[in-house]
C-alpha cells in the first residue's frame, strides 16, 4: 500500500495505539487516532489513590505478552509492578487450599486425576490441535490455521490444515468432555471466569484456549506474572507519548461515510477525509449503555453485511468496585472465591485484589459477572449490593466505595456463529469498504491479544 495513505484509527486503547506504533514502524506516518474520552488506555484504566495508581481495568501480563513487550521496548519501560499473590476462600469466607493434597485428603484421587488430565490437555494441544494458539480465529471453523506462531517472540508465520480445530467452536466444557479432560476446568476457571470472560458452558473453546494457551495457564499457576508500578494505563500513556501522532482526545465521531474510495469522518462537527479506517472501538452493542458508548454500526454508513454479522456480537457485564476498608478489615492478600465462579452464583464476588503488600492505605478492587447466556441479567445495583454483602461475609467489609464501573467487556460470538465461520466472513470483509476491523472482538479481550492482532493486521494489509 502507498506509504502516504491517510489512515484514521478509531479508539485510543491498546489496539488503536499499537496499530499506530506498528504502522509507524513500517513507514506509514500519515495516521490519526481518534479517542472519545479525555484519556488513552481504554480498559487499561489506572486512577490514583493517595499518590499511588490502582487498577480499575487490566492488571497483569505474562512473559509471552510479546506485543506488550514490543511497546515496552518502543517506550523504554518495563513491567516493574508489585508481585501478584493470592489465596483462596470458599463462599462462607473460610480460607481454603483447593490444590494442596495434604489439606484435601479426600480429594487426592480427584487431584491426581486432574494432574493427569492437565498433562493430557498439554499434549493434545500440541498434536491433535496443532495450530490452536495462533492469534485470532481465521480459518478455525474450516479446520485451518493461518497466522503467526505465539510460541516465541519471533512469531513465525504458520499455516496448515487441521480439521480437529473445528472442535474449538464447541463451548469449552463440551470440548473438555470430548477430550476426556473435564477436570482441567478446575485450573482454567481461575484466570478465566473470575477475570470476567464468561462461563465454560457458553464460551467457545477457541477463546478460552487462545487466551489461556498451555504456556500462559502454567504461568498463572506459578504466578509468573507481570504488573506495572504505575498501572497498565501507563504502558499506553507512554506509547501515546512516543507516537509521532498522539491520540486526539475528546473526539466525538458523529458520522462516517465511505464513498468513492474515500472515508469521510465527521468529528466534533468537522468533516475529515481519509483513505482507510481501522475500527478498534466496539462494532456492535446490543443494548443502550449508561456510558454512552455505541457500536460502529450506529455512526457508520453500515452496510447490510456489516449489520448482519456484527449483530451476533454479545459482551460480558463485568463490574468493578474500588473500596476502602478500615485498617482492621483490610485483607492480607488477594483472594479468589472459587464457589462464586459458577453461573448459579451469578452476581457474587469472584475475586478481590489487594495490590500493595506494604500498606493498608489503598483501595481493594472487586470483580463480579452478572450475565450468563441462558440467565436473566442481574441489574447493576443488585449485583453491587451482593458484592458488598460478600465482602462482609469474607470479613473484609468495605467502609466506602471510591470508584466503580460496569465495563463493555470481552465482545464475542457464541458457538453457533463461531462454527458457521463468523470470523472468516469478517476477515473476508477486511478492506472491502476501505475499513479494517480490529480490537478485542477479532482476537480476545486482553491487552496482548488485541495489540498482537493490530500487529498482524498491519503485517497483512499494509
Ligand atoms: C476489570 C478488567 C480487568 C482486566 N484485566 C486484564 C489483565 O489482567 N490483563 C490483560 O491483558 N487484559 C485485561 N483486561 C482487558 C484489557 O484491558 C482489554 O482487553 C484491552 O484494553 C482491549 O484493548 P482495545 O484497544 O481492544 O479496547 P479498549 O481498551 O476497550 O479501548 C477501546 C478505546 O476505544 C474508545 N472508543 C470507544 N468508542 C469510540 C468512538 N466511537 N470513537 C472514538 N473512540 C472510541 C474507548 O474509549 C477506548 O479508549 C481487563 C479489563 C478489565 C475491564
Distinct small molecules bound, one entry per kind: flavin-adenine dinucleotide
Question: How far apart are the termini?
Answer: 5 Å
Percent range of helical residues: 25-40%
- For the secondary structure, the number of strands is 18
Can you count the helices? 14
Mean pLDDT: 96
Strand content: 15-25%
The shape is globular
Q: What's the alpha carbon Rg, rounded to whole Å?
A: 22 Å
- What low-confidence regions span 5 or more consecutive residues with pLDDT below 50? none
What structural category arises from helix and sheet content? alpha+beta
Biggest sheet strand order reads: 6-5-14-15-16-13-17
Largest sheet: 7 strands, mixed
Walk me through this protein's architecture.
Strand 1 (7-10), helix 1 (14-25) and strand 2 (31-34) form a beta-alpha-beta unit. This protein has helices spanning 14-25, 66-75, 108-126, 172-178, 185-192, 205-211, 214-221, 232-242, 296-299, 304-310, 380-393, 415-419, 422-429, 447-461, and strands at 7-10, 31-34, 48-49, 52-53, 86-89, 95-96, 144-148, 157-161, 253-259, 262-267, 270-274, 276-279, 314-324, 334-337, 351-353, 364-369, 400-412, 435-437. The protein has 462 residues and is of the alpha+beta class. Strands 6-5-14-15-16-13-17 form a seven-stranded mixed beta sheet, covered by helices on one side. The protein has a four-stranded parallel beta sheet with strand order 2-1-12-18. The mean pLDDT is 96. The protein has 14 helices and 18 strands.
